[in-house]
């Protein structure tokens, strides 16, 4: 195991690494975009009566951020980040609703079950995932592939250690 206590990267080093990591994720995701599929997703969202966004954990945070983004462009959307509420809400969906499912792995069991309920109620399912062949992606009407989370950052450990040490 590498001893990170002797390393003291500068704040500029952290900023450069963050910028580089996000730049790589954005570049890789752009290279994966199928414009026709993206256009179908946009059309489904525009034509929907209601928009719901499912995510758990870090994907739940992204769902909440998406909710805010929709509000900023004048569309109401509801982020649901609790798996029990996702399942309950999915029972009310109709063919006029769109569910945007965020799951990097595409394998979160609770999300899969809620997407199944939504699909059975004829809602349009848009899945955003790293794995287009995952079980959740297979439930989708529209799948958007992303490249998030593929960048490993060892410096995060040092950063967390420095924050923990400074809070003592």
TrEMBL record:
Among Gene3D superfamilies, the record links this protein to:
Glucose-6-phosphate isomerase like protein, domain 1
Sorted alphabetically, which PROSITE patterns does this protein's record hold? SIS
Q: Which Pfam families does the record match to this protein?
A: SIS
Determine the domain of life of the protein's source: Bacteria
- InterPro entries in the cross-refs: RpiR-like (IPR047640), RpiR-like_SIS (IPR035472), SIS_dom (IPR001347), SIS_dom_sf (IPR046348)
Q: Where is the SIS domain?
A: 41-168
Q: Any stretches that span the bilayer, and where are they?
A: none
- Could you tell me which PANTHER family the record lists for this protein? GLUCOKINASE (PTHR30514), HTH-TYPE TRANSCRIPTIONAL REGULATOR HEXR-RELATED (PTHR30514:SF1)
This one is known as MurR/RpiR family transcriptional regulator
Q: Give the organism the record lists.
A: Tigheibacillus halophilus
């Amino acid at each position: 195991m590498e001893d990170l206590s002797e390393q003291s990267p500068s704040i500029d080093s952290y900023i450069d690494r963050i910028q580089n990591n996000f730049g790589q994720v954005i570049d890789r995701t752009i290279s994966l975009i199928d414009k026709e599929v993206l256009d179908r997703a946009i059309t489904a969202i525009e034509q929907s009566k209601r928009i719901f966004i499912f995510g758990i954990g870090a994907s739940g945070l992204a769902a909440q951020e998406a909710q805010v983004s929709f509000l900023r462009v004048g569309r109401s959307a509801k982020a649901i980040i609790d798996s029990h509420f996702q399942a309950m809400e999915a029972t009310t969906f109709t063919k006029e609703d769109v569910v945007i499912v965020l799951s990097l792995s595409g394998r979160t069991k609770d999300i899969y079950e809620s997407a199944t309920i939504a699909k059975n109620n004829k809602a349009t399912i848009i899945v955003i995932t790293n794995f287009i062949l995952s079980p959740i992606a297979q439930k989708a009407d529209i799948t958007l592939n992303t490249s998030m989370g593929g960048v490993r950052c060892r410096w995060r450990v040092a950063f967390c250690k420095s924050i923990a040490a400074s809070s003592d």
